[in-house]
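Figure 6 in text form: structure in, sequence out.
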């Protein structure tokens, strides 16, 4: 249905955003902590693999741009959070298998 923004659509859009230092998308890396969708307004909480990541603002901007491409999105806010800290345990089972973890 056109114009209906879903959490699944947001996660799929975020799968196109990669951490340039690690060639995997931010969803499979476990960097996306929360996605809320309310009448076309999207709020995402995400983190980086470490707090001093020099590319954090670029990755957040790429995430916002990817979400804005979804039909029906009115407003996007990606918030960078550090609590809880990211750990490799957050990596998706599929990526863990690919990495041999």
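Output sequence:
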């Amino acid at each position: 249905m056109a114009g209906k923004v879903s959490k699944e659509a947001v996660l799929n859009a975020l799968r196109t955003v990669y951490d340039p230092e690690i060639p995997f998308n931010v969803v499979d890396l476990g960097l996306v902590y929360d996605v809320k969708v309310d009448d076309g307004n999207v709020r995402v909480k995400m983190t980086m693999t470490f707090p001093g990541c020099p590319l954090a603002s670029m990755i957040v901007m790429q995430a916002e741009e990817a979400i804005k491409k979804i039909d029906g999105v009115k407003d996007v806010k990606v918030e960078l959070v550090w609590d809880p800290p990211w750990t490799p345990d957050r990596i998706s089972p599929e990526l863990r298998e690919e990495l041999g973890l």
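Caption detail: The domain at 7-87 is CATH 3.30.300.130 (GMP Synthetase; Chain A, domain 3).
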